[in-house]
Amino acid sequence: MGTDWGFPMDLSKSFDCVSHDIVMAKVARVVEDRLVLKLIREFFEAKVMEDDVCKN
């Protein structure tokens, strides 16, 4: 059928210095569903609540 693979890693800070546009272009090569791509983009743009303050 298909190939299932994965690897453990901590992504918490990995997107602080990565171009989201480049990542999205690479993801779009393998993900065709526009709704999934939109969801991933929204994760990149999501804010974080820390000490009752919303941060980017």
What portion of residues is helical? 40-55%
Run of helices and strands: HHEE
Strand order of the largest sheet: 1-2
Q: Assess the beta-strand content as a share of residues.
A: 5-15%
Number of strands: 2
- The total count of helices amounts to 2
Average pLDDT figure: 83
Euclidean distance between termini CA atoms: 40 Å
The class by helix and strand makeup works out as: alpha+beta
Low-confidence stretches: none
Rg estimate, integer Å: 14 Å
Sheet of most strands = 2 strands, antiparallel
Approximate shape: extended
Question: What features would you describe in this structure?
Answer:
This protein has a domain at 20-55. The protein is built from two helices and two strands. The chain has helices at residues 20-30, 34-45, and strands spanning 48-50, 53-55. The chain has a two-stranded antiparallel sheet with strand order 1-2. Helix 1 packs antiparallel against helix 2 (34-45). It starts with 19 loop residues before the first helix and ends with a strand. The model has no long low-confidence stretch (mean pLDDT 83).
